[in-house]
Structure formats: structure tokens, C-alpha cells
Amino acid sequence: MPKLDVEGEGTFDVEDGKRMVLAIEEDAKVDIMHVCGSYAKCATCQVEFLEGEPEEMTQAEMVILEMRDLLEKVRLSCQIYCEEDMKVRVLQTVSGTGANEAGAKPEEEITPEPEWIERPY
Fold first, then answer.
1. Is 77 helix (H, G, I), strand (E, B) or coil?
2. CATH number for the 3-93 domain, one of 2.40.128.130, 2.40.110.20, 3.10.20.30, 3.40.50.9100?
3. Distance from the CA of 40 to the CA of which of 28, 90, 104, 109 falls in 20 to 30 A?
4. Contacts of 63 (CB under 8 A, 6+ apart)
5. pTM above 0.90?
6. What pLDDT band is residue 110 in, cutting at 50, 70 and 90?
7. What residues have CB less than 8 Å from 106, skipping those under 6 apart?
């Protein structure tokens, strides 16, 4: 069972293969933003990896991070499965942004259908 360490919140055992955005929201109880419903379109579910960054990413994640000049700076928690121990810093929360809600509930599986690529850095 992987451990997800969320800076300032603690370390949590999460179900192997759980979407990181859901692990942060449900297991760590952090009000992480996911305005687009976790479809790799809004980039509000950003995390900064402190340890354990996966070597692969989805094509959708790479495209939006490149468009927003965020590649090599952050990752999208909606595009990552918890499959190993990781430590992250959540960058946008409902309470921190003053939004009324996080966004639509994310699906259990990564959306859109992932095309996995090697991280380009």
C-alpha cells in the first residue's frame, strides 16, 4: 500500500492505483481544486513533488503543462495514480483560492483515457 505524504497534512496509506487527486481529497482531507472535474484541462489540481515523482505522465498532462509554461515545475494530481510512496505539496485549495467549490467529482480512473509517455525531463 503506497504512502502519500501531503506537506503540512501528514502521511496517509492510500489504495494502490488510486488517483492522486482523490487520495488528496478523500484520504488526506485536503480541499484540493479540480475545477474541470479532473480532465487535464484547467490545471487547478497542481502539486509540487518533493519526493517520488513518477517517471511517466499522460500526454494530456504534458500538453496542458507545456501550454501554461508549467512543465518541470508542477504536476497535475488528476493525471497520476498512487502506485509508490510520494511526497507532494498541494498548490491550490478551495479555502486558499476563495472559490465556492473544488469542481465536479473526479472519476475513479484517469480522464481522458491516458496515453502514457516518459516524462520529458
1. helix
2. 3.10.20.30
3. 28
4. 40
5. yes
6. very high
7. 19, 21, 22, 25, 34, 37, 38, 78
